[in-house]
Amino acid sequence: MDQIDADVGNMFEKIDTWLDGFFRLLPNIALALVVLILFYFLGILISRIVRSRAEKRDRNSLGEVAGSLLRWAVTLLGFALAITIIAPSITPGDLLGGLGVSSVAIGFAFKDILQNMLAGILILLRQPFQVGDEIVSGGHTGRVEKIETRATFIKTYDGRRVVIPNADIYTDSVVVITAFDKVRSQYDIGVGCNDSWEDAKRLMIEGASESEGVLNNPAPEVTPIAIADSSNNIRLRWWTESDRSSVIHTYGRVLENVYKKLDGAGIDMPYPTQVVLLHDQTEEHDGDRSKQREGWPANAEGDNPKPARTVQAEQEDAHRKQSSDHTSGNAA
């Protein structure tokens, strides 16, 4: 078996060479650390300036995102310069080339994250909605709490937090409820067919106008929309402030006031009714009103058909009586 001879002298020579190289690079390493620290604090300073400018324009979310991105960009630039100081053989071109290859690999690995980040930046720049707006997105309705680079946070009306990826918000339709100051509500009311349409419309407008939260401009309006089976339907429309609290509370007050107005004036508000007639469909006279025994109105003359069960019982009694009389006659 061959023996491996360890050249101890060569090993110490290598270690000595490494130490000599390390000590020669100490000034470069120290300078690189100074550059890295300077760029780190420069990034923090730039981030604070951007956030301050954004706050003055009432765009806090954009300031936070832009400040964070700039801080990391400046820090990465300082890290690249530090590498070129420690290893002068590495040029900025080499770093850019390596960064290009790495960015492609990172792009494939973190495609969804980068997509959400880009969508978040576009949302913050274009501002289709802002923090505090009430929106509907992906089947969720609530108030926007925060817009980050990855997702948008909304608080639903029942007190839950929903995190929606920015890519979903940017590619799907979004309803911004509070985009405008005013929003319209409506309700369809059915009144009796024999009641006055003009009186009903006047009372409905009065009830809506007297409700707290209903705006005078535009004023409430009514429009007949249908002559239905059991009522004449009139649509009542009114305008309120666009926030959810104003809409829902005003909605309840309008319905209550309109009902009291119509009911107090004797205006009928009917509901659908049905009349069901039941009759025996097993007897031979089914469908013949002159002989039908169940389910038909009484005759004015008083000669009304009897129920099938009653007739059958009378026939059985008569048959038993005839059988009894016949037996008695034979015995005599």
Q: Quickly give the structural class.
A: alpha+beta
What is the CA-atom radius of gyration, in angstroms?
Answer: 44 Å
Query: What is the mean predicted local confidence, pLDDT?
Result: 78
Number of domains: 4
Give the count of helical stretches.
Answer: 8
- Helix amount, in percent? 40-55%
Shape: elongated
Order of helices and strands: HHHHEEEEHEEHEEHH
Give me the side-by-side strand order of the main sheet.
4-3-2-1-5
Q: Bin the strand percentage.
A: 15-25%
Number of strands: 8
Which spans have pLDDT < 50 for at least 5 consecutive residues?
none
Task: Describe the protein in words.
The chain is an alpha+beta fold and 332 residues long. It folds into four domains: 18-100, no CATH class; 130-176, SH3 type barrels; 182-264, Alpha-Beta Plaits, CATH 3.30.70.100; 275-312, no CATH class. 52% of the residues lie in helices and 16% in strands. The strands form two sheets. A five-stranded antiparallel beta sheet has the order 4-3-2-1-5. A three-stranded antiparallel beta sheet has the order 6-8-7. Strand 3 and strand 4 (161-165) form a beta hairpin. Helix 1 (8-56) packs antiparallel against helix 2 and helix 6 (197-209) packs across helix 7 (244-264). The protein is elongated, with a radius of gyration of 44 Å.
